[in-house]
Amino acid sequence: MYPGDKLFNADINTRREYIPLSLVELARLIDLGWINPRQPIDVSTLCATQKFQIIPKVRQYGFDLTEEGADSFLYSVDIEVQYATQSAIAAVEKAGGRVRTAYYDVESLEAAINPKAWFEKGKVIPKRKAPPPSLMEYYMDAKNRGYLSEETELEKERQLSADVGGYSLPKDVNITSSLKAIDQVFHGIPSGSVVSLADKKVFAPKNELHREYYSNLRSDKLYS
């Protein structure tokens, strides 16, 4: 926008924006019954409360979990966000929950923020694409609870956060056991499927080439 000054807003056309979600706001949404803490929380869950608006076309890429309210956060939640501070991560894990940071490309994010509209158009549920090179390191880092990091490394970082914070990780963790695949947009619905709200059915692909394209095996090769 200002060709004569490359240092002023030089990244304005590539900058990613994340909607702040404080632990205070998350707790309030749970208290008011807008969010069920016993179910996985992700972009779709948060947008379904109609308290947030994400516009992918203006480079809004999801949620940033912030530490405001960390001292009083008591809910054991399983939450997936796109960015999270270390204090917010520690607060959720101290309460017996789990945090994962995960990337959404524009198409996947458009599906996630309004699933009903996406399903009504009969669109195929897309695969989440791999993060761009500039974000790959962040999502592969267990310290950030990145979804591309190894589970053993995640456990080490959880324990390290507990040691530094002076708290013990709860033994009985009240969170869901299943995680979305690295290319999956919705819990329980595989990529490549079509959802019919009228029939209340999920139609999985039958064509072999279609199935191969959306298979987890192909995704693992893509991300490796």
Give a written overview of the molecule.
This protein has 224 residues and is of the alpha/beta class. It has one domain: Ribosomal Protein L15, Chain: K, domain 2. 34% of the residues lie in helices and 13% in strands. The chain has 9 helices and 7 strands. It has a 3-stranded parallel β-sheet. The longest helix is centred in the C-terminal third of the chain and has 15 residues, at 151-165. Mean pLDDT is 87; it is low at 217-224. This is Large ribosomal subunit protein uL15m. Keywords: Ribonucleoprotein, Ribosomal protein. It comes from Caenorhabditis tropicalis. GO terms for molecular function: structural constituent of ribosome. Residues 20-99 form the Large ribosomal subunit protein uL15/eL18 domain.
Kindly summarize this structure in a few lines:
It holds the Pfam family Ribosomal_L27A. This protein has 224 residues and is α/β, with parallel strands linked by helices.
Helix/strand layout:
Layout: E1 17-22, H1 23-31, H2 43-48, E2 60-66, E3 78-81, E4 83-84, H3 86-94, E5 98-101, H4 106-113, H5 115-120, H6 133-140, H7 151-165, E6 194-196, E7 201-203, H8 208-214, H9 216-223
Parallel strand pairs: 1-2, 2-4, 3-5
Antiparallel strand pairs: 6-7
Pfam family, one: Ribosomal_L27A
Protein name: Large ribosomal subunit protein uL15m
Domain Large ribosomal subunit protein uL15/eL18: 20-99
